[in-house]
Structures are given as structure tokens and as C-alpha cells.
Amino acid sequence: MFRSACARWWRLVWPEAVACAALTAVALHLIAPFLTDRFIGASDAVWYYCLLDDHLHQTRAGIFPVYVGQSHANWNGHPVGLLAGYLLTGAALDLATGGRCSTVEVQHLTLAWSIWAGALSAYACLRALPARRWLAGALACLYVSCPGVLCLPGGLDMYPSFMVLPYVPVVLYGLARGARRGDGTAAGCLGGGTALVWMCHAAIALWLSVGGALFVAALAARRGRFWHTVRFAALAGAAFAVLSAWYFATVFSMELHRSHGMTEEPEPPPGLYRATGPKFADDLTRNVRASVPGAYLPLGDRFEPMSYFQLGYGLLGLLGFAAGVALRERVPALRAFVGAALGLLLLLHPLAGLTWHFWANLPRTFGVTGPWPMQRFYVLLAGLGAFAGALAVERVLSRGRAALAFTVAAPHAAPRRHVLAARAALAAVVLVVGTGYSLHQAQKVRALGFRARDPDPVPAVSRPENQSLRAHNWLTVHDPRTTPDRVTVGDPLLYNRVLDADGVAVLAANREAAGRGTPVPFVPAVALPFRADAGTSVRPLLTARFESEKRYLLTLRVTSQNVSEGAALVVRGATLRREYRPLDNTGRPQTVRVTLWTSAPGADDVQVSLASAPADPTVPATLSIDGIELTRYKATDLPVRVDAPHPYAATVRTDRPARLETHLEFVKGYEATVNGARVEPVPSPDGMLTVPLAEGDNEVRLVYRGTPAARAAFVVSGLGWLAALGAAVRVLGRRLAAGGREATASA
Fold this sequence. Notes:
It is a single chain. 50% of the residues lie in helices and 17% in strands. The chain has 24 helices and 21 strands. Strands 1, 4, 6, 8, 11 and 13 form a 6-stranded mixed beta sheet that branches. Strand 19 and strand 20 form a beta hairpin. The longest helix has 39 residues. It is globular, with a radius of gyration of 29 Å. 44% of the residues are buried. About 9% of the residues have low confidence.
């Protein structure tokens, strides 16, 4: 009897196992470019790398849940809130691999996980829809191999956006099942999937949530479905509230509007996105062409975003097929998915007079406007296309079977049967050809994965001295405290200073103290005053020898005009490799201060160069340097001696009551002690965290605990996810048991 049960179970499971193995092979083919120990992409990829590096430092040290940055990679406390899915996935993969992988390898594993899990998730949800095995497999393959989907990490560095790939099908399945049954399983999939998408990417989740709410409202408006739909919506809302409680409690406790004045650029005023329609169209088209050059565009350049970048070719064809079926069939989910996909295509395609007006007046909520954020919604388009295609094809095939049975009694109905058969054949041809060609086109996206950001090995780029403040932390190119200075200081030590008791006047500052350090001789490469006009150029400025573990402050007096954003101060040595873009185009003199050091053993001969190019090619760029200073300072000689940046520990001596302004931006949830006594941290006028100091020596300790509400919400969400996992296992067990009984009955 046991052998008979095992045989029945194997007959039930092995076809699904074969399908999953085939999808795994496709995923491995797509994953291959990301299985490397080198950076993929450009500055955004490195920024995400640094946030993940900070997160792994903390989880390996036993600090969990992680809320703010507390390591050299993210020392000023950038909050985890909006990237929780990406960072938590990385931490889970790091735990699964025993911490043996480097941070960049873990980063690439998050992409590999998303492709593989996205394929299996789409297949499982489409099979449960239900869809035939071959149809679900082909659509799942198309879902993860869409060029527009693969471009998110491969061409655009949108790593967190890519993390939603496994969870969008769960939300769509919850909506489709809710349209038919509206039971607890549908509500759990809808609420849990939406919570996961929110934790991965808020902008995508916002649009998905709005669309889901409109879909549920439409269901409630149907005759006889109001109270049934209200119950379904309440269950889904409760699941979402419990499972996402930690995320939202953390985000709201951090006040992510970042109201302090230390942001890189002035915070845009609330209100409307003022980009004009033509600018949106030009930016979108330029980004598409730059992302995957040489793509085949069957509909021509005019329809470039629609025809290539958003969907795979098979899904694009099936979406058109599904639109035709939806016009005749009364299937709420099919009509909703087709309408949503076509609506997004319309919004993403810059049609004159309509889309332009829409984009010029769309609110800026969660930063979802503009051409770059909108390109993140191609995952939604791919998911909608897959589900709409599955619903349409299944509807046609089921009607075809019914017509065939009817033809036996009514031969005159044969033409109708032939029409349905032709439709099914058309869908099959589109699916087969489109899947094959999309996989072929995916090769061009895979080729982008072999772009290395820098020829240097990862260990050199990941050194603390090589972290770029501008690219990897919210703090600060423009510092309002020392206007008109431009500051690119990659050393948190220099951001600490002592203010008066009111927190206004500066009594002592680490950066000024470092500037009064020991002058260091260097070899100037140009005669001062140096002036560069017109054209793109790279000019060496100086060469100096840096001793290991010694800290240096480079000060330049610069005037620039019509210099492009790509103008950079380039620092290169055997181990020290940094780039700064601190220049503005005001034509006014500015002071640039840059902190440099090397943690490599021995000395490092460092060359500092200036790379410049005109912003407007028709007008010469003007850039002049009137003075260069290089000083060496000791951390122990600074007014604020930072003993440890994570968790923060510092020693300060003052001859009067004062306030310590740290390099940490103020968010609620810090616990502070001065000489062992609890004190209340408050923000400075610039939004940085400050604590009161007494006269004499002060030992300051800061630990981020999170707000009580965030800690309580973490417990609630943790218990909720455990309950959701148990429910999923129970439902799967019931389905396997039911399948086994059906197999026994048929035998």
C-alpha cells in the first residue's frame, strides 16, 4: 500500500518537477552574467552595493532588525525602509551561504534569486489559475526573459526594482482568484504579495495597490457581489496590515522626507511634476536606446518603448490576442488585466496631447513620476501580459472543447469550431515564436551583464577609503553650514563639531582642525593659477605619497562655469581610487575639501587629476584653480575624538556647556548616554543628531534601537509571516492530497 501511495504521488508530482527543472535551466541561462565577483553596472549599482554591505556588517554582528546605517559603507544612517526587500533578501542569502560570499557576490545572488524565484512563482500562480502546464511554463519563461525586465539590473542598475519579480504574480493570482471566489486563499495571496512588493519597491507597489483597489471596487459594483467582495477586501487588508506593519512603522518613524538641509540637492517643493511632455518622451527614448543597443523594433522607432523595452515579443502578441478575447468574454479578471496593461502601455508611450499632459500634472508621490522611475513598471506589464494571455488562451481552448462536443449533435456548428481552433492555433504560434525570439533578444541584455564598472578588483573598490560620499550616502555635496564651500568628505570624523548650548554657534569643528594640521609636501603638476578652457580634458594636478593609516585633507580653491556634471576630481594610487564631482557652474569661487587616506600596508603614491568637459559643447568650459593645500592630521588631535562610528562612541572635552553635533542625521529611535547618564538627542538646525555636553570630559555613546512602535510592529509582522508560511504549507498539503485522490480515482 505504501508503494502504491508513493507511485500515485510520483505520477502527480513528476510532471511539475520536470517543468520546474526546465524553468530552472532557463533561469540559469539568464543568471549566468550575474554569477561574477566583479561589479555590474555603474554608480547606482555601487550605491546599492554599499547599502547591502552596511546591512551585512550589521547582521553578521548580530544587529537585527537593521534600521539605519552603522558602518563605513553607510555611516550617516541612511534608513533601510525603502529597500527592505533587497537588503533582507541579501541577508537571507548571506545566512544561507554561511557568510562565505563577498558583498558583491551576495548582491549578484539577489538577482539570481529573483530570476529563479520569479520563474517558479509565475509558473505556480499560472498553474493555480488554472492554466495548462505547457502554457504556464511558456508564460513563466517569457515573464523572466522579457528584455524590459532583464534591463532593470543589466542595463539600468535598478536592483531593488528587480526584487519584485517573484511577488507580482502572487498579487495578480490573488486578484484573479478573488474575482471568482474571493476566499481566504485569494485574500492571503493579495495581502501578502502586496506587502512583499511594498517592502521591495514602494513606487511599483503604489501603482500596483491603486490598480488592485480599483479592481476590487469594480468587483464590489457587480450585482450580488458587494458584501462578498467587502469580506474579501477586509481579509486581504488585514493580511496586508499585519505582514507590512514593520515596514510602514519603520518608514514613518524615520520621516523619510529628510527635512534637514544636508541633502545633495534642495528638496523639490511638493506638488506637481513639471517635466514637459516632449522632455519626458525624449528622456524615455534616449534611456531605452542607451540600455540595449541594437534591439529589433518591429513597430519602428516611433513605438520603440512599446515594442521592445516594455514587453517580450510573445507577451506583446498575446496581450493583443487577449484584448480581442476580452471584448467578447465576460471574465472580470481578463478584462481588468488587459485594460491595466494597455493603460500602462499608453502612459509609457508618449502620445502627443494625452500622455504628455498626464505626465506634466502627475503628483510626485513616492517619486513615481519621470522616465526613469516609470521604467520600473515593466515588471507589472510583463506580469499583466502573462496572466491576461493565460486567461485568454484558456478561455478559447475551453470554448473550443465545448464547441467540439456540440458539433457531434449539430454539424452545422462546425464553422464556429474552426474559428475557435484558428484562434487557439494563432495564440500557440504567437507564444512559441515570441518565446523563442524573446530568449534570443535576451542575449543582448545578458551581454550588458559583462560590463564591469571598474577594471579594479572588488576588494580595492570596497575599501572604506574608496567609498564615495556623494554616491553612497544622503549627506552632502552642498553643506549649508560653510556656504559657499563645496565639501566631499568621505570621512565621518570630520563631520563632527561642537556647538554652543543653543546649538547654533560653532565652538570647534573637526574639519577646520584638520585643515590646520601638518602641511604635506607634494609635487604640483601644473603652475598656479591653473586655467582650463574648452574641450574635454584630463589634467594632473599633483602627486604625493600617502602613508598607511594616515589621514590627509586636500583643499582646492576652484572657479568653474559651463562644466558638465561629469567633471570630476580623480584620485588614483595603488590602492586608493576615488572620484569626486564637487564642482558647480556658478562662476563664483568655491573651496573644495576632500579627505583622503589609505588602509593598505606601506605607502601609496597618489596622483590627483581633474577631468572636465563642457556642459554646452557650443560654449567653452571655464575652470580655474587658484590654490592647493595638503595637510595631514591625527584623529586624536581633533576636538571630537570618534572612537567608534558603529555604534557611535566619542570623547569630547569642552570648557563650557555645549552640544555635540554628530555625523548622523537625526531620526527617532536613538538612545544616547553622556558619561553613563541617559540624555535626549535632538536635531540641530541642519538636521543632524546632537546631544548635550557638560563642562569637562564627555564620553558619548549612541545606539539606534528604533522606536517602540517599530519594535512592536516587527514582532507582529514576524508572527504574521510565520502564520502565513504555516497556512501556505497547509494549503499545499491539501492540494497534493486532493491530486492524489483524483489520480487514484482515475486509475
